[in-house]
UniProtKB/TrEMBL annotation:
InterPro entries to which the protein is assigned, alphabetical: V_ATPase_D
Organism: Fervidicella metallireducens AeB
Family assignment from sequence similarity: Belongs to the V-ATPase D subunit family.
Protein name: V-type ATP synthase subunit D
NCBIfam families linked to this entry: PRK00373.1-2, V_ATPase_subD
GO biological process, alphabetically ordered: proton motive force-driven plasma membrane ATP synthesis
Lineage of the species this protein comes from: Bacteria, Bacillati, Bacillota, Clostridia, Eubacteriales
ATP-binding recorded as keyword: no
Known function: Produces ATP from ADP in the presence of a proton gradient across the membrane.
UniProt KW Ion transport keyword: yes
Family matches, as HAMAP family: ATP_synth_D_arch
Keywords (A to Z) from UniProt: ATP synthesis, Hydrogen ion transport, Ion transport, Transport
GO molecular function, one term: proton-transporting ATPase activity, rotational mechanism
Length: 209
C-alpha cells in the first residue's frame, strides 16, 4: 500500500532518502536481533545449568535439615540457629549488554572476620545440621547468580521481542510502502513529462504551420 503523498520531485527525493535510512536501520536492527539471540541462548544455557546445581544443593540441604530435626527435635533446632553469626545485605548495580541494562548482584557480608558459619556450639547439635548449614552457605552465591541470570534472560527476551517488532515493521510495512510510493511517483512524473512533451510538440507543430 502506497503512502498518501503528492507526486512531486521533492517528495520523490525525500522518500528515497527515507528509504535509504529505513534499509540501513533494518540491517542494523537485524544484526542487533541476531546478536541478542546469541547472547540470550548463552544465558538460557547458563541459567539451566545453575538451576540444576542450585536445586540439587538445596534438596540435599533440606534432607540434612529434616534429619537434624528428627535427631535434635524442633525446639532445639530452632534455638541452635536463631542467632546468625553474620548479616547479609545485597548490592545491585547494572551493566549494559546490547543496550539492555541487566542486573549485577553481590552479597555484602557483615560479621566478625574469621567467624564460624555455624551460629551454635557443637555439643548439643547434630552433624546433619552442620551439613545443612554448610550446604546453604555454599549455595547462596549460586542462588544469587541464578536470580541475576534469570532476570537478565527476562530483560533480554523483552528486548528481542521489541527489536523483532521493529524489524518486521520496517521489512513488511515501511520499506514496501516507500518502494511502492517511489514507483508510483516515478510513473506519475514520467507520465507528466510525456504529456508535457506531447503538448510541446503540438505547439511546435502549430507554430511551424
Amino acid at each position: 500500500m502506497k503512502l498518501n503523498v503528492n507526486p512531486t520531485r521533492m517528495e520523490l527525493t525525500r522518500l528515497k532518502t527515507r528509504l535509504k535510512v529505513a534499509v540501513r536501520g533494518h540491517k542494523l536492527l537485524k544484526d542487533k536481533q541476531d546478536e541478542l539471540m546469541k547472547k540470550f541462548i548463552d544465558l538460557v544455557r547458563k541459567n539451566d545449568e545453575l538451576r540444576r546445581a542450585v536445586e540439587d544443593e538445596l534438596t540435599e540441604s533440606l534432607k540434612d535439615f529434616m534429619m537434624a530435626k528428627a535427631v535434635m527435635g524442633t525446639e532445639m533446632l530452632e534455638e541452635a540457629i536463631i542467632m546468625p553469626t553474620e548479616k547479609i545485605s545485597l548490592n545491585v548495580s547494572k551493566k549494559n549488554i546490547m543496550s539492555v541494562n541487566v542486573p549485577v548482584m553481590e552479597f555484602v557480608r557483615e560479621g566478625k572476620e574469621g567467624a564460624s558459619i555455624y551460629p551454635y556450639g557443637f555439643a548439643q547439635t547434630s552433624a546433619e545440621l552442620d551439613g545443612a548449614i554448610k550446604k546453604l552457605h555454599n549455595v547462596l552465591p549460586q542462588l544469587l547468580q541464578l536470580a541475576e541470570v534469570e532476570k537478565s534472560c527476562q530483560l533480554m527476551a523483552d528486548e528481542i521481542e521489541k527489536t523483532r517488532r521493529r524489524v518486521n515493521a520496517l521489512e513488511y510495512v515501511m520499506i514496501p510502502q516507500f518502494k511502492e510510493t517511489i514507483k508510483y511517483i516515478t510513473m506519475k512524473l514520467e507520465e507528466n513529462e510525456r504529456g508535457t512533451l506531447t503538448r510541446l510538440m503540438k505547439v511546435k507543430s502549430m507554430i511551424q504551420k
